Amino acid sequence: MQHRGRHRGHLRRPAEDVRIAVVAADDLVTVFACDGSYDYLGVRAWFHGPLDDGAGTLTNADGATLELDIEGGKFSAELRGEGVTNGPYEFTGAQVESGQAGLYWGQIDGWVGGWIVDEAGDQRGAAIKRSTDDVSLVVIDPSRTEVVLEDQVDGPVMPIARMTAPTKVE
């Protein structure tokens, strides 16, 4: 499959409570998988890297792996690894074209946030402080450009944006 430099959009599909978002252009991809809700976080995994003709296996810094195949605006994926709670998970999905659905992310002062918003406005996500593994299970408003990590001492204000091109998140 050839991508010819086009942005492929945001792809996602629930598997139990875990959601996945895929942002791809050409043969470069960023993927976020998460089950974070108001009171629970078991799965959070970022992936970034190249695909070969729309397919490949990506491994993240935590050792989780994602097998991904994108073809014609649809994808299939399998997420597995020791840190993937209750996995492996299998996903299928299609390109999202409208509304506020997509992958939102932000970074500030050691915090990394990721939120997957579906067409109905439901979301999974969280912000993690990398150095301490502190978690903020705050819900975002996709129409805003920031979120306050309210459940943290002196909660920082994290800028957020919808990811529109593959971006390495660390």
List keywords for this structure.
170 residues, mainly beta, 2 domains, 8-stranded antiparallel beta sheet, disordered N terminus
Question: What do you see in this structure?
Answer:
- The protein contains no helices and 15 strands.
- It is mostly beta strands and 170 residues long.
- It folds into two domains: 90 residues; 61 residues, no CATH class.
- The strands form three sheets. Strands 4-3-2-1-8-7-6-5 form an eight-stranded antiparallel beta sheet, with no helix packed on it. The chain has a five-stranded antiparallel beta sheet with strand order 12-11-10-9-15, with no helix packed on it.
- A hairpin with a 5-residue loop joins strand 5 and strand 6.
- The protein is globular and about 45 Å long.
- The two termini are 29 Å apart.
- The count of strands amounts to 15
Structural class: mainly beta
Poorly predicted segments: 1-15
Return the average pLDDT rounded to an integer: 86
Oligomer state of the chains in this structure: single chain
Question: What is this structure, in a nutshell?
Answer:
The protein contains no helices and 15 strands. It is mainly β.
